[in-house]
Amino acid sequence: MLTRGERRWGGRRRRRGARVAPAPRLRRAAPGPTEETTAPALEIRGLTKRFGHLHILRGVDLSVRHDEVVALIGENGTGKSTLVKCVARALEPDDGEILVGGAPLGVTAAEVHQQGVAVAWQDLSLCDNLDVTANLFLGQEPTLLLDEATRRQRAVAVLSQLGVSIDDFGRPVRALSGGQRQSVALARAMLGGRRVLILDEPTAALDRNSARAVQDLIRRHRASRIAILLVSHDLEAVCELADRVIVLRGGVVSADVATTEVRPDDLAALMSGIRADSTARRQLRRLHTLVDQLSEVEPSRTLPLIVSAMVAALEQERVAIHLIDDHVDGGVPVLRRSAAVGLPAAVLAGDEVVPVGAGGGIIGAAAELGEVVVTEDLRAADGHEAALAAGLRSAWAAPIVGSTGVLGTVSGFGTAPGQPAADQMELVSLYSSHAAAAIERERLLEQVTSRNRTLETLGGILEILAGPDASAGGLDLALDALRRGLGASSTVLFEEVEDGELVERGHRSDVAGPARREQEAAARWCLRTGIVVGSPVPSVAAVGIDLQDRRAALVARWPDGVSVGRGAVELLADASRSIRLAIERAALDAAREEATALRRANALQREFLSRLSHELRTPLTAIHGYADTLRQPDVQWDEASTRRFLDSIARESARLGRLVSHLLDASALETGLLRFDHAWCDVALVVEAAVACVPVAPPTVIDVHCDPGLPAVRADHDRLQQVLVNLIDNAVHHNPPGTKVRIEVSPLWAGDGDADDAADGDGRTGEDRVRIGVIDDGAGIPADLVERAFEPRVRGVDAAGDGVGLGLAIAKGIVEAHRGRLELRSGPGGTAAIMTLAVDPGVQSVTEE
Question: Do 539 and 558 meet the contact criterion of CB atoms below 8 Å apart?
């Protein structure tokens, strides 16, 4: 129910389709300020002509530029022909001046002709007793000394351009038809080099085909930089050919307009003295301009552009647009002001948000009814105190109707009581349709953009979670991608454990402090009630995740004051499903890895027991045999034999100890359980300790050379000594007695890699290293064993008697765990074991456990 003083506009509201006039054809624009700035081809200043007491021309000013067609129009008796005769010097003007290319026009017809000015007269001005060829070249005989046959050929060519066919060029022109005589006069004017061409009704006596040929010829002459002054009553041809139109009325120039701005009916109105720039035409031009701008402007700027155009069209400075907002608490739609022009601050403060319906005044009523609502006198209605205080006396509101219904309203205020004019309301309806299209276009773009952002975010999350690191750093990366996609300040994943406690599984945030407690409160509330938006903390949304044996909550928080949109909640829900799949996948991968580890442990255990039983049988058998021999009661052994048996038992026991140690170390390396105690070690002392552990019988000699500038190395002292003991022991006991063993230790500084290192492909020339070489001059390793020397259980390359072939494999594993390299080089001159270690390998790169 509308209040007193408010009513619907015009009862039943009619819908009209806007009929848009066709856009004018593209024309060649007049020269701009950057184009040629020479003097006009023809310029008339203050031209005046009287015949007795009759004043025909009254200070006429006009100009025609090069390559321009200017039409001169006017009713009969306005002085058009008089102006043309003054230019052709058929009449002498009383006052004013005429310039051609900036120079004064000659005073005789011959001088005018020499300056390149030609006129095609309305009354033809032909010599009836002369033939066609003679009339064409009449007055040009001194300059065209051609024989009769050549002149006849040129005459035929010129008339052919006009589409005129004359059978006998020797007949007098009095025997020709009116159209043929007109063509001859035009051909004479256009013949030769012209700068200015004046055509007085050139197509008045021609048929349609001939007139079209003349128009084509005019266009070609304009393209040749000839200035053309066209005098014509054919307004359609004027709009088609001319660049500008000059209207003569009462002997003065009453209008000078571009043909891109007028139409034939406008020119007829100007000739009659009627102003062409009517309200309707201005509105049409505004609409044409608005449509052109809307096709080029960004969607986000279309609505302000339409409001500005509407203000100019209505000539009303106080206009506002409200759009319906459905995304509010409680689901009750309201109208929010989107744009306003010229409204007082008090009015703006009161109508920022208005309800849909009678409670929202005329704005809410127009949105509810879908019709125009008018308040003729604000003093007769309630709730307009702010508008009355600002001097406003009337108001109206019209709905903005789109394809899905009412999208909003456009409203305006007036300073006087009364109804708005009918044409104004028609304009409001027209501009409202443009506003509806702009709103729907912008919303569609927002939806597409939001969906694309959602798809990109989900694609990034799935790509991260589907990667090999999904259960570790991948979850944090996925939460960070979700935070960016939501435009949120933080995203957190909470998991519920025993006793209802929440554990933070992953977190990506730009804030800290109380924000986490707010998110935890939202997560608890979500686990009890479901999806939560804005409760118990504003700008927070949470979505529950049901896992196999527990529950979790995905929480997002936005900066204070930012409302949570529906699209953000949908994206959060989609991301929660992806994260749930990733968590379940991680649990499945963990179970599969655990099963794989158990199977591997069982296999290693079986292999270890098999190796142990096989490799330990030989030393155990020897020990048992020597012990049983010594225990025989019926045999008395001398001291030397007893000593020899005991030495054998001790040797086999040591061998048994090495086998057990190697087997344990190999298993620890294979399972990744070999521990290292990193500390800064003096390499020279490690080498000295390793040499002391290897017994050497003369004449075998171990020679040690350590560079005095060796840096300390961060490594496990005992493990490094174990490697050196194995390498030195192999060099001593796998070669004949008397073999010389040389140990060389030298530093390799960053960037100083030598040729050997480059050939070996070390590649780590950006860090300091230490190289240790154990070199002997013995028989060398067989060629078929060099490539397989570091494979486990390869016999013949370890210390004598070990048999199982694990020493070098263990040594290589220890060196690589220190991020180093161990290699063998063997040849006729002996064998070299080269170990290269980084000075500081870094904790991350070493197997800790």
Answer: yes
